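PROTEIN DESIGN WORKSHEET
SECTION A - STRUCTURE
LENGTH: 70
C-ALPHA CELLS:
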C-alpha cells in the first residue's frame, strides 16, 4: 500500500522523492507536497519514512509483511 503524506506537516523538501528507489513519487517537484505517482511501485522499504525530517509520511504495511518490520 502506498505512503500517505500529511500535507499539513510536509515542507516540500523533496527528500522522500530523492530517496525512494522505486520512483513512487516520480515527477514531484521540490517545494510542493509530493504526489504518489506510482503507488503500485511501493515495496515498503520505509526509506521515505526514515528520511522525512517532518515525520510527515506514514507507510501502511500489508499484514503479511509486518512480521519482517520491527
Ligand atoms: S521528506 Fe517529508 S517533508 Fe520532505 S517532501 Fe517528503 S513528505 Fe514532505
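SECTION B - SEQUENCE
RESIDUE ASSIGNMENT:
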Amino acid at each position: 500500500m502506498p505512503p500517505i503524506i500529511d500535507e499539513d506537516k510536509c515542507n516540500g523538501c523533496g527528500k522522500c522523492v530523492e530517496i525512494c528507489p522505486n520512483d513512487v513519487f516520480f515527477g514531484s517537484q521540490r517545494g510542493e507536497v509530493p504526489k504518489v505517482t506510482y503507488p503500485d511501485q511501493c515495496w515498503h522499504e520505509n526509506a521515505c519514512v526514515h528520511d522525512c525530517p517532518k515525520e510527515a509520511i506514514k507507510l501502511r504495511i500489508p499484514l503479511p509483511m509486518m512480521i519482517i518490520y520491527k
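SECTION C - NOTES
The two ends are 18 Å apart (CA to CA).
The domain at 4-68 is CATH 3.30.70.20 (Alpha-Beta Plaits).
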